[in-house]
Amino acid sequence: MRHVIALDVSGTGMKAALIGLDGTPLYEEWRPAVRERGPEVAVESALRLAEDLRTLGRTRFGATAEAVGVAVPGAVDTERDITAHTAGPGRHDVPLRELLSRRLDGMPVALGHGARAGGLAEGRLGAGRGVGRFLFVSLGTGITGAIGIDGRVEAGAHGRAGELGHVVVRPGGPACGCGGRGCLETLASAAAIGRAWAATSGDPSADAADCARAVDAGDETACGVWRAAVAALADGLLTAVTVLNPRTLIIGGSLAEAGDTLLTPLRVAVAERVTFQRLPTIVPAALGDAAGCLGAGLLARDLVATASAPHRADRPTGR
């Protein structure tokens, strides 16, 4: 059976799948992260997993995978033949597409940013299906997004479109890892809320989920932390709405697991801020943590479809 390999590499682990060209899931696997052992070990682990999946596909389905799609958490630089950047001291640039293709004997490789891959999956298979234009916002350790346009995701000129987390919403505010101050993700990410609640509650182990539970229980101190984060998030989303004019905002990532505790006040806050802008529908993501792997599979399937399509000169023009 014709199929592709999908890999979603994150800080917590690697999700992998074999997916038929018709979208049928054929096999799924998860392996724990090994990033704490260094970038070289993490990259080798991803390469080995891809090799194992190729072998499994040959054995179980009688065919070799036709492409592999990989979603990675770091920046993806399209100007340098798509290089994946892994976080860590000194920052490491890894030519992951080249390494994978070489390890898999020249198999075509599509490499994409994890949030953009997740947004692609939400656009074609999840909450953005049929919407046309949407913004997928992933609220996790950081904040990033994907600009959805008619079944595809706009990567930008250099592969970095959608970095909503680095929109400055509080000038002169907390220092951000990007070098700026007052970036949205320093105030409204799950990590930021966790830090604020840990400091306020006096519990160093507290996280954003704990804060959400305290909000649900009516803890006024937690409500104050939550309101500040929602206000910052609404300010960032207003900028996105003004610039992009999306029909729908899709809210995903670990913070979205708070459900209506997040979405209800967020809808109100965004509505209070719009003036001339058209207020988009704000909905939760539908695919959860499967989105990245599904998106990686879509990237691989698109690669196969592009390679299989007749040359443009052979196509009818319709004129």
Question: Short summary of the structure?
Answer:
With 319 residues, the protein is an alpha/beta fold.
Helical content stands at 25-40%
State the end-to-end distance: 38 Å
CATH topology-level fold name of the largest domain: Nucleotidyltransferase, domain 5
**Helix-strand string:** EEEHEEEEHEHEEEHHHHEHEH
SSE-based structural type: alpha/beta
Count of the separate structural domains: 2
The helix tally amounts to: 9
- Physical arrangement of strands within the biggest beta sheet: 3-2-1-4-8
Give a written overview of the molecule.
- This protein has 319 residues and is α/β, with parallel strands linked by helices.
- The chain folds into 2 domains: 3-116 and 289-314, 2-Layer Sandwich (Nucleotidyltransferase, domain 5); 129-286, 2-Layer Sandwich (Nucleotidyltransferase, domain 5).
- 39% of the residues lie in helices and 21% in strands.
- It contains 9 helices and 13 strands.
- The strands form 3 sheets. Strands 3-2-1-4-8 form a 5-stranded mixed beta sheet, sandwiched between helices. The protein has a 5-stranded mixed beta sheet with strand order 11-10-9-12-13, with helices on one face.
- Helix 8 links the parallel strand 12 and strand 13.
- Helix 5 (190-201) packs antiparallel against helix 7 (220-244) and helix 7 (220-244) crosses helix 8.
- The protein is globular, with a radius of gyration of 20 Å.
- The two termini are 38 Å apart.
- The model is unreliable at 86-90 and 312-319 (pLDDT under 50).
